[in-house]
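User: My collaborator sent over this chain with a note saying "see what the structure looks like." That's all I know about it. Can you take a look?
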Amino acid sequence: MSKIISFFRDSSPLKLILISIVIVVISYFIEKPLPNVFMGLRLIAFLLFVYGTIRLLNRK
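Assistant: Without extra context I'll predict from the sequence alone. Here is the result:
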């Protein structure tokens, strides 16, 4: 668990934003067969995007 937390703390904000965009693209392919997983992935992508954006704005 500490490795996951350290990954989010140490990675660059642009990398987090890019990961969130990739998650959104992947979630489009599973929208029809698994709607609950689709919504979960979209929520995770949104949280990553917001976290990366906040870190990007605080860095400058």
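A starting point for your reply to your collaborator: DSSP finds three helices and no strands in the chain.
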